[in-house]
Amino acid sequence: MTNLNPKRLIAPLMLGMAMVLVGCQSMNSQPDASLYQQLGEREGIANVVEDLLYLIVEDDRINQQFKGMDVAQFHHNLTDQLCELSGGPCTYTGREMRELHSDMAITDTQFNALAENLILAMEQNDIPTGAQNRLIKRLLPLYPDIRNL
Ligand code: HEM
């Protein structure tokens, strides 16, 4: 039979608890100054969103969906959202993602088109590739809400 000496269990137990604590710390949304700074802070992000808007208008895969929207509001809210997601000192005060996109029947092709345009806009603003990827990674958890899955 296995020897279940309680003294032998203490060390692994403590290690396990320490790992859980470290894990929790890295999961909470601690501001990540480096990504926010790599994006050029709020001003840099605002420039990216402006260029994204031009790309959306030109893109026949998605521009119909955006017809008639309040451009200034979209620009302000998406800038805040990306600022907050990148660890910047902003608070997103726009509408809730699922509710906002729920009637749009957004397809994978359209979701990808928007992500592609965001990458292009970051490219146009000389954002380093690593920072581009990290921002996209932070947007991915929004995918099920935006696709209404
Ligand atoms: C990563 C993907 C996406 C993110 C992070 C995102 C985020 C946002 C944000 C922050 C707003 C502004 C919210 C507000 O003003 O309250 C918005 C509005 C909007 N989004 Fe998205 N979105 C995404 C994908 C898409 C896609 C793929 C489409 C359609 C093809 C789309 C269509 C729209 C439209 C039409 C509006 C304006 C709605 C209105 O003002 O009535 N979005 N989105």
TrEMBL record:
Pfam families: Bac_globin
Signal peptide from the UniProt entry: none
Keywords for this protein: Heme, Iron, Metal-binding, Transport
Any GO molecular function: oxygen binding
Superkingdom of origin organism: Bacteria
Keyword Lipid metabolism tagged: no
InterPro entries attached to this UniProt entry: Globin-like_sf, Globin/Proto, Hemoglobin_trunc
Chain sites annotated for binding heme: 101
Keyword match Heme: yes
Protein name (record): Group 1 truncated hemoglobin
Organism lineage string: Bacteria, Pseudomonadati, Pseudomonadota, Gammaproteobacteria, Pseudomonadales
